[in-house]
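User: Hey, quick favor. My workstation is busy. Could you predict this chain's structure for me?
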Amino acid sequence: MRNYGTARRVMVTGGAGFLGSHLCERLLERGDDVLCVDNFYTGTKDNVAHLLNHPRFELMRHDVTFPLYVEVDEIYNLACPASPVHYQHDPVQTTKTSVHGAINMLGLAKRLKAKILQASTSEVYGDPQVHPQPEGYWGHVNPIGIRSCYDEGKRCAETLFFDYHRQHKLRIKVARIFNTYGPRMHPNDGRVVSNFIVQALKGEPITVYGEGAQTRSFCYVDDLVGGLIALMDSDDGFTGPVNLGNPGEFTILQLAQKVIELTGSKCTIVRQPLPSDDPMQRKPDLALATKALGWGPRTDLNEGLGKTIGYFAARLPSAAV
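Assistant: No problem, here it is.
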């Protein structure tokens, strides 16, 4: 009875989160049936409220660290807190979500013979000694630091995916996601783009850690979602891992100055000590994504920040600008 209907049945774990909600939206737009699974630890129903009456959308409260029995054709495994504030709040649960969650979703995919995509992260490269970071680089990660619950949890999940692929011939896809931003980011998630925008809109000082010389590459959410779908739809012979992000590289200080400019804020910049294990460089090598998927980002930072600032400005009653 699988594939009896005309629509592809797709499950998105972490589907009520920032990235997951945009993915659910895009999948519905192309005609898929979407099962959104989330335990609402960091995700929120507000992110998918506009989808609840859609005839092909279903929302399920569930924690992926426990087994799940449903019938689907494809699985996007996005479930895991992705910002340092959230994943360091309960580091043991973060590791469980990455590892137990991967085991449970891989087991489900094995039973269903479904294709499954893992949302991995650029954090598997740690504080890189190779720049930009290609997929063949094994990384430079502290296994016992305060970020390890996320970094090593995602690395272990990648191991599990490839072992299931080799041992059980499972159809897998692994995406290494670089810094992504856009509407529906949590205002208090501790990520640099949302932090800076919220502080600027409130007229508060913008907090820069260290000298602000560390670099990041920022990918707008619409571009990233397009990359995930292109990866899932690619030939089964291509598993990844593949970098998805934007190669435009900016220092944190440059980002702070750009946010102040685009918001018209009069706020100042204050400095705090650099957090432990904070990577000094982050930039994706996109040669593989370009060759294998024909994919690349289209949204420049000014355009993406403008849309994100507009989103937060409409939702912050105390905005000063």
